[in-house]
Structure formats: structure tokens, C-alpha cells
Specification:
It is built from 20 helices and two strands. The protein is mainly α and about 500 residues long.
Length: about 500
């Protein structure tokens, strides 16, 4: 069965192969969609195997998929498929308009596949050292996508992304080494001292001082990838400057990979230090992220930067859920990972259609999207309500679960602050997007897409995303609930 997760990680490379063979966005885009669909199908198969028995693993645990890994792999695979669909239409329009040269189209699809494969592989290993390598590989691939449209601001954002991420990943490496050192007194092969299952099983024998420092460095290092404040400075620029499908991948998938790494370190730390230490660290970073995200969403004119600061806020919410801990806290945090990934992918892809139609990211120059582009405008408005945690959407359920966790953990003051921040975010975010959707219309604006294939690939992920966030708000399927509960058991 080990072939399933390996194949799931490799199928996005179909898009890479297509990019090497052709510079036509439509042809490469269709191939990338096929790769994304196969990735999702194989990931579902891998998750089914994990749920039916033991984790899938190879000798040395270099390939390892348990319930938590299967959940994150499934989340990333969904984002890959939706973003692949959006890539076809977005790049076809930009190629037709001359914004992207054939060479840049090739580079986009080559790197897009490598980026997707790196993220899938990162959540399918149990080795801390290999995780570090794969996260960095995925980061390096994603850096190429940020300035792909050739703007000076994109080059600056890409450079800032490289610098900040390099500093962060260095800290993550230092944290990994400290955890390895904390396990040196435990009998076993040296490679086992970097394997999660081994470390969690022998957590009580780890050296406390080294583990405490290693955990803190890991949170700071991988928190840079997640966009936790104050390590978030690269995120608004990179997410705003990248093509919208790439922004969806950055926000909906790459941030999750960093959070996945942090959660694995939380599981190790809890076994030796108790849940209080990791919980307090995550609560500090979580609330800082929500506060900063809320402040920077007030009167934000660049709507893609608005979406980016929303990602900072939602990563903070996930950290808060993990910090509150317990069954409700971890369950709510993991459910929020899935809800945010789908909701933010939906918003970035919808935003891509708006950018193509209006030629700007300035919200004060965009209006009447609902009347000019009915489906896009409706998706923008409904997607905004969904990402803000309005009922009956999935993010309301996950945020409500996190609030219940805070009350159960006797943090009423923090819960009150959390609710206040959510109100500020709701007003600031919706003020911008509702003005775009319902403001005075620009009569010259029409659909940027030409032909049935482009329209289908632009609208399909929007419809699927809206349906998913609504479904998850009304009903959590039994198999997903079981997968979430199995994942929670691995963390607590």
C-alpha cells in the first residue's frame, strides 16, 4: 500500500512534464488538472487504508502516513486540484493578452507541479530531517511563482520571501537538531531519533531543557512558513504579487504544511513537558497574529493583501485552538485548517477573475462585480461571509468549536478578546469586499474568459469551493469526523 501515498505525491508532476513539453496554457493546464485529480483520488485511497488499519510506512519511516498526515494530505490535495483548475483559465487569459510569454507559462507549470509535489511529500514522512528538506524544497519552488508576471514589486516580494523564509527555516533546523539531541540518551538507531512515532513513544525520556528550546525554535522557524506574527512580514507581499492560483496554493496549502510541522512538534512536547508549555507558546503567537491581522484589515485597499492578512489571522486562530488544547481545541483547529484552505482558495481564485476583468487590485477602483460578473460577484460576497465565520458555513463551526475549547479550558478573558477581534475583522473585511461586489458598476467590464474550457475551469473551482464550505457548516461527514478524531488522538 505504500505505493499509494508515493503516487499521490508524484502525480502533480504531470503538470511539470506538460510545462516542459508545451508552452500552451490550455494544454499544460488540462494536464495539470488531470494530475491534481489523480492526486486527490490517490490521497483519498491512502486515507482509506490508514483509517482501515495501521499507518502506511516504509523502512526507516522515510515514507509515513498516519491519520494526521492523511488529513493534511487530503486538505492539500483539494487545494491542488482547485488551483490547477484556476491556473488553466488565469494563465490562458494572461497568455492571450501578452502578459505572460510562452517561456513564463512553461516556468509556471513546471514549478507549480514541483511545488505541489514538495508539499504532498512533506506531510507523508515521519522523519524530522526529511521534513525540513521537503518544506524548504517546496518553499524554493513557490518563490519562483511570486514574480512570474514580471512586475518589479513581484521581484521585491519574492526576494523578501526568500530572505525571511531562509531565516525561519534556519531556526527550524536548529529546533530539529535540539530535539534530536534531546533523544540521544534513548537506546535506538540514530535515524529513529528523528522519527515522530519513536519520539512520541519515548517522549517521557527526552531531555526537557533541550526539548523546550527545540520546540520554541521549531515554532518560530516553521511559524515563518505559517505566517505567525511577528514572522509574517513576507506573506502579504508574496500572496498579493503572485498570480491568483499561486496565491491560493500559498495560502491554502503551504501555510498548512508549516502548521503540520508545528503540530508534530506539539505532540512530542506534550509527552514530556505537558500541554501547558506548548499551549501557552501557541496562544501568544496565535493572539498576536489575530490582533495584527485585524488591524491591517481595516481600510485595506489592495484586496489581495486583505486576503493575505486574513490568512495571517486564520493561522492565528488555528494556533489559538491548539493552544486551548483538549479534544475540542485540537478538533476545532484541524477542522479550521480544512475550512480555511477551501474558503481562502475560493477567494483567491475569485479575486483572480476580478483582477483579470478590472485590471487592478485596488478595491476603490472596483465596483458592481455582482451586476457585471454575476457568478464572480456572488462568489466574492458569499466567500467573504464564509471566510469571516458567518453561519451556516464551515468556518463558523470550527471557530465556535475553538470558542467552546477556550471556555472549557477556563480562559474566559481570552475568549472575550477573541470574539472582539472577530467583530473587528468582520467589519473591516466585509466593508471592502461588499463595496467591490455591490458598489457602482463599471459598464465596460465583462467576463475575461474566452471559450467554454476557460469559463469552465474558472467557474468550476468556485462552485465546488462554495459547496464545500457550505456543506462543512451543515454536516461533517462520518469518515471525515473519524479522520479528525484519529488525528486529535495523535496530538493530545
Amino acid at each position: 500500500m505504500i505505493v499509494l501515498p508515493i503516487a499521490a505525491a508524484l502525480t502533480p508532476l504531470l503538470g511539470t512534464a506538460a510545462g516542459l513539453l508545451t508552452a500552451r496554457a490550455r494544454v499544460a493546464g488540462v494536464t495539470a488538472i488531470i494530475g491534481g485529480a489523480l492526486c486527490l483520488v490517490l490521497t483519498i485511497g491512502s486515507a482509506a487504508v490508514v483509517m482501515a488499519g495501521r499507518p502506511i510506512q516504509s523502512a526507516g519511516s522515510l515514507v509515513y502516513l498516519d491519520g494526521l498526515g492523511a488529513f493534511f494530505a487530503l486538505t492539500i490535495a483539494v487545494v491542488i486540484l482547485l488551483s490547477s483548475l484556476g491556473s488553466l483559465s488565469y494563465l490562458a487569459v494572461e497568455q492571450r493578452r501578452g502578459v505572460l510569454s510562452p517561456r513564463r507559462v512553461r516556468v509556471y507549470f513546471v514549478v507549480f507541479g514541483l511545488f505541489a509535489t514538495g508539499m504532498m511529500a512533506a506531510v507523508e514522512t515521519a522523519n524530522l530531517g526529511l521534513l525540513f528538506i521537503l518544506v524548504e524544497a517546496a518553499t524554493l519552488a513557490s518563490v519562483v511563482l511570486v514574480p512570474i508576471e514580471g512586475r518589479t514589486s513581484g521581484l521585491e516580494a519574492g526576494w523578501r520571501y526568500v530572505v525571511v523564509s531562509s531565516m525561519g527555516i534556519t531556526m527550524a533546523l536548529a529546533g530539529t537538531l535540539f530535539v534530536f539531541y534531546a533523544a540521544t540518551g534513548i537506546p535506538g538507531a540514530p535515524e529513529q531519533h528523528l522519527a515522530w512515532a519513536f519520539l512520541v513513544r519515548h517522549a517521557g525520556s527526552l531531555q526537557a531543557v533541550s526539548l523546550r528550546l527545540g520546540f520554541l525554535l521549531a515554532v518560530v522557524g516553521y511559524g515563518t512558513k505559517v505566517g505567525l506574527v511577528p514572522m509574517h512580514t513576507w506573506l502579504p507581499d508574496a500572496h498579493a504579487e503572485a498570480p491568483s492560483p499561486a496565491s491560493a496554493m500559498l495560502s491554502g496549502a503551504l501555510l498548512n504544511v508549516g502548521m503540520y510541522a508545528i503540530i508534530r512538534f506539539v505532540a512530542i512536547a506534550n509527552g514530556r513537558l505537558g500541554p501547558a508549555y506548548a499551549g501557552h507558546v501557541l496562544l501568544v503567537f496565535g493572539f498576536l497574529s489575530v490582533i495584527v491581522g485585524a488591524l491591517f484589515m481595516i481600510r485595506r485597499r489592495d484586496f489581495k493583501r486583505l486576503f493575505a492578512y486574513s490568512s495571517v489571522e486564520h493561522m492565528g486562530i488555528i494556533a489559538i485552538g491548539l493552544g486551548f488544547g483538549g479534544l475540542l481545541g485540537v478538533y476545532g483547529a484541524l477542522l479550521h485548517v480544512l475550512n480555511h484552505s477551501i474558503g481562502k482558495t475560493l477567494l483567491f481564485l475569485t479575486g483572480g477573475s476580478v483582477v483579470l476583468a478590472y485590471g487592478t487590485r485596488r478595491s476603490d477602483r472596483i465596483g458592481g462585480v455582482v451586476s457585471s460578473l454575476p457568478l464572480t460577484g456572488a462568489a466574492l460576497l458569499v466567500g467573504s461571509l464564509a471566510i469571516l465565520g458567518s453561519p451556516p458555513f464551515g468556518l463558523f463551526l470550527s471557530e465556535f468549536t475553538i470558542i467552546r475549547a477556550g471556555l472549557a479550558a477556563t480562559y474566559p478573558g481570552l475568549v472575550g478578546l477573541f470574539l472582539l477581534l472577530l467583530v473587528v475583522i468582520f467589519i473591516g473585511f466585509l466593508r471592502t469586499t461588499s463595496g467591490m461586489a455591490l458598489g457602482p458598476a463599471e459598464p465596460r467590464v465583462g467576463s475575461p474568459y474566452s471559450g467554454r474550457l476557460e469559463r469552465w475551469s474558472a467557474h468550476a473551482p468556485v462552485v465546488l469551493g462554495l459547496g464545500a464550505v457550505l456543506l462543512l457548516g451543515l454536516w461533517v461527514p462520518g469518515w471525515l469526523n473519524a479522520l479528525l478524531l484519529r488525528s486529535v488522538a495523535l496530538v493530545r
